[in-house]
Amino acid sequence: MYALEARHAPVVSLWVWYHVGGRNEVPGTTGMSHFLEHMLFKGTPAHPKGDIDRLLARYGALWNAFTSEDVTCYFETVPRDRYATALELEADRMRNAAISLEETEAERNVIVSEREGLENDASFLLGEQLQAVAFSRHPYGQGVIGSKDEIKLMTREGLYAHYRRHYAPNNAYVIVAGDSGADELLERAAAAFGPLDAETPTEPPKAPEPPQYGEKRVIVRRSGGALPIIQIAHHSPRATDGRAAALTALSVALAGATAGGGESASGRSSRLYRALIDTGLATDVDASYTLMKDPYLFVVEATLRPGSTHENVERVIQEELTRIAREPLSDEEFARVRRQMLSASAFMTDTITWRAFRAGQLLATGAARSLGEWYEKTAAVTAEDVRAAAESIFHEKSRTVGWFVPES
Amino acid sequence: MDVRRKALGNGLRVAVAPIAGLRSVALLLAIEAGQWFEPAGRPGIARLTAQAMLRGTTTRDAKAWADAVDGIGAAARLDVGSHAATFSAQSLSDDLGALLELMADAVVRPAFGAEEVELVRQQTVAQIDEDSRNTRAVVERVWRELVYPIGHPFRARPIGDVAVVRSASADELRSHHGKAIRPTGAVLVVAGGIEADVAFAAAERAFGGWGRDPVRAKQGSVPEIALASAVRRVEVVPDKTQSDVIIGWPGLPRNDPRFVAARVTNMVFAADTFASRAGHVVRDELGLAYYVFSTLGSSRGQSPWTVRMGVNPANVERAIAAALEELRKILQGKVEPDDLRLAQDKLVGELDIARESPGGVASLLLEGELFELGPDHLERYPAALRAVTRDQVVETARAFLPPERHALAIAGPPLPEAA
């Protein structure tokens, strides 16, 4: 448990991070953690279906849940005087979710609908294929939401077993930020979750990704997208690696702290914005390094402008990746990158919900033990660190290239 | 909430909400230069003008301006909506002056260089092309075409019409900028770790020289819209899995005295996937959609009042029928006291939760400032929401959401009967 004082608004944000996600699944049950996330809103004996939604709505709460490859996470930001209710709801559903057969069947259609909505998006379609090709052994290749067929085959018994195995106090982080002393926030959380029984600890998945020995390529052709897309992924180190902060800076240097293109007016001094947007080769570009438990992917994505070719845009991106791995950023450029990174950190933590999220993300992935420690790590990054981090991951042998090719 | 207000000599109104303990400030500069103020028959000019304003000024070229924004680590964007062109930005508190100066440079002194305008044009054409295969964008376009007649400012999406975008010249953008981008009617809201006097001084330094125009921007005569019957259009978007659906009606101006009741009605009916009746039935009870929500736009005109759903093609008719059935129940007065209380609790509670971030506080303030709802608007607003009665909800639904006169747009794979 971890608490942060945030006194500027009369609210409390409570987050529960379970160490279970796509990474803990095996073929045949992909999407199980995400399916389970939906079922945690379907009631417990103490809070029947609909109770949680209506209770939180009544407080004007900001609430949601998400599942990633690493974790499943639930949060609610509530008025300060409703903190007890938030704690009670989360402690209750940590061990007492009903997960009935009837609700499993009803929710299956909602999840299929969520998947179908994603399939309308060309970027999702390509990203899913790219991830599957980039990982030959590690379960990160399976993604999160699961295949439609596997969602349709998911059983109530399987879901319940998954729930009992992974939803326990000794497999979760509780993070709270809000308008009270940290000690008080923590004591009340301890009182809510302390009485719950621990489970036998689960073994982390043991399928490390073997080395890659050459570039992989994937092409997705569909008419359901008007503009071509390129995604270029390189295997990158886990969040606990000493290069994590420098890789975060690398993503800012390449595409800004906010994705470039469209209405965004920031991030336009970045390398890839200058090379692709200012030159009219692409409409959007992004570069992302994600803090993850296991080695994952550094991904560059660009949407091509009509008239641009995949070959040309890919060449330009590769040239920029090679250049940034070869020469350190100039002092002026590095100062911009550093400022964007540190400002973005302030923007995030000035919102109570995102302050709690960020702390949870750092703790759950092992990137840092506190917001302050992560800030120190990012503030200590040098231009040479950024170059060296780029040099360490941008190799042809660890690269996977994906093209989305629209068909008429 | 401590809010201080000041009007600059040129008419720009500034509202500042200092929040102790924060390192950053959030800014919203809303200029009455949205679709409502767009030249008749030229949809897309407002957005094109706004985007070109980000591509260089008379004192800095596009590269230098971008370097300066990133040099202070600011986040910024400029969006055009139905009412306003809104510059939203965030910076560290110490950089407020520099950020305002950069925003003012783009707003007051854009260069509209030919090459830069061409780049923005090509970007916009590409986005329109991309949108032609995006079911959410297609359904929005189709719905607007069903509801608003040719020439109405809300007929097109803010991105506009591709023919207009292709034909717009730098001179046309410059002319639109001269007429629409001005301080009269504009509002600057600042919230976060800053003292009010410091913010006022910075605003004065940045925008004090923005020329005053005594005449406020006006829209010409816009006819009132009312649907005569139910209208429906299906547009097939190839190779998609899910259908996007909009059921909607022309809404009401933000300054209409019934607007607060309309917001409560919207929440009772469909605003929230989980707290409103349509979402409860369509998602929770029937499992037909992942998302179901409705929005009611704020502008001086009849912005869209729409329910949106993402549905498998096989379930489209059932989901539409279920949503309309919930609406009919409201019209029949079947509004449980708890449905109304829940809607009011949620709308009032959200006001407190929004205070958790400087951006949330700025957004809370903006509507009241932009539509001149009074300096005590935020104090009165919760009570106004709570004062809405069941009869008002029923009456509002009858007046604005007649189920037999809705506009229905569907975009996605072929529907089963047409397959």
What does this structure look like?
The complex is a heterodimer of chains A (408) and B (419). Chain A has 408 residues and is an alpha+beta fold. Chain A folds into 2 domains: 2-193, Cytochrome Bc1 Complex, Chain A, domain 1; 216-406, Metalloenzyme, LuxS/M16 peptidase-like (Cytochrome Bc1 Complex, Chain A, domain 1, 2-Layer Sandwich). Chain A has 15 helices and 11 strands. The model of chain A has no long low-confidence stretch (mean pLDDT 95). Chain B folds into 2 domains: 4-207, Metalloenzyme, LuxS/M16 peptidase-like (Cytochrome Bc1 Complex, Chain A, domain 1, 2-Layer Sandwich); 231-418, Cytochrome Bc1 Complex, Chain A, domain 1, CATH 3.30.830.10. Chain B is 43% helix and 18% strand. Classes of the chains: A alpha+beta (408), B alpha+beta (419). Chains A and B meet through helix 2, strand 4, helix 4, helix 10 and helix 12 of A and helix 2, strand 4, strand 5, helix 4 and helix 10 of B.
SS-derived structural category of chain B? alpha+beta
**Termini of chain B, distance in Å?**
57 Å
Pair with the most extensive interface? A-B, 80 and 84 residues
Beta strand % of chain B: 15-25%
Helix fraction of chain B, binned, reads 40-55%
Largest β-sheet summary of chain A:
6 strands, mixed
CATH homologous superfamily of the largest domain in chain A? Metalloenzyme, LuxS/M16 peptidase-like
Strand order of the largest sheet of chain B: 1-2-6-3-5-4
- Kindly state the percentage of residues in helix of chain A: 40-55%
CATH topology of the largest domain in chain A: Cytochrome Bc1 Complex, Chain A, domain 1
**How are strands sequenced across the largest beta sheet of chain A?**
6-11-7-10-9-8
Approximate strand percentage of chain A: 15-25%
Q: What's the CATH class of the largest domain in chain B, please?
A: Alpha Beta
Helix and strand run of chain B:
EEEHHEEHHHHHEHEEHHEEHHHHHE
CATH architecture of the largest domain in chain B: 2-Layer Sandwich
Q: What is the CATH topology classification name of the largest domain in chain B?
A: Cytochrome Bc1 Complex, Chain A, domain 1
